[in-house]
Amino acid sequence: MRILAPAIALALASAGLHADDQFAPLRDAMVREIAAMSSVTRAETGRAEFAASVMVAMVRVPRHQFVPPDEQPYAYENRPLPIGYGQTISQPYIVALMTDLAQVGPGDVVLEIGTGSGYQAAILAELAQAVYTLEIIEPLAMQARERLGRLGYSKVRARLGDGYQGWPEHGPYDAILVTAAASHVPPPLIAQLKAGGRMVIPVGAPFMTQYLLLIEKAGDGSLSTRQVLPVRFVPLVGGG
Ligand code: SAH
After folding, report:
1. What is the pLDDT of residues 192-233, one digit of tens each?
2. Most-buried pick from 7, 41, 69, 163 (CB within 10 A)?
3. Rounded-to-integer distance, Cα 134 and Cα 180, Å
4. 212-222 exposure pattern, b = at least 16 Cβ within 10 A, e = fewer
5. Residue 223 is assigned to a structural domain of this protein
6. Ligand 1 lined by 89 (C-beta under 6 Å)
7. What pTM was estimated for this model as a whole?
8. Torsions phi, psi for 121 (to 5 deg)
9. Nearest atom, ligand 1, residue 114 CA
10. How far apart, in whole angstroms, are the C-alpha atoms of residue 50 and residue 35?
């Protein structure tokens, strides 16, 4: 087994945070698996290890609270799970990778498209100053908002809406994460990305090969794009 970075080992050791949480050992095992996988995918991602802050967030957020009751036994397996309405909560490794690529820091204001269960938003809230998240399926949007409130994620604002258009009132954003696959990068999201900001988005036709893209906007507004990994996401619907 790989040796974990000290900060992560410390977070695991202080799982006393969740002393009453029977899932804590499974969550720790999930985080170790993510660490092992990040090492295997280093050539593609350019990241042998995800930031310690990202791994600590993965240790802290109770994924089992974000899946339907009958999926709870599988909540810490490193795979996507159904959350109803034909949608899925993303694979934990992918959540960690996207969060790492977005380089979210304490002062950042982040936009997420595709709230789904609210899990990715909770991970972002562990790292950022504020998180805005949009979901197009009404019952999922309502459930996620209720869940995030109940679990104390007060930095997250979640609402129903078409994420293709973004959420211009709170932008521009330091980071934008899109958790559904688009056929192209939505221009409104590019417009709402701050100079110096990062967008992580899967792009490709539904059910065909999609690629996770990291798009960086330089200080002068110019864009650079890196294709990171082939991925499979549910489609981004709505939009133009
Ligand atoms: N981030 C989620 C996983 C989301 S799956 C989590 O952590 O659980 C992708 C989600 O994107 C689905 O819930 C889907 O309904 C939503 N979605 C698809 N198209 C959208 C759009 N145009 N605007 C907002 N949400 C959208």
Report:
1. 999 999 999 999 987 778 999 999 999 999 999 999 999 999
2. 163
3. 11
4. bbbbbbeeeee
5. yes
6. yes
7. 0.94
8. -60, -40
9. 11
10. 7
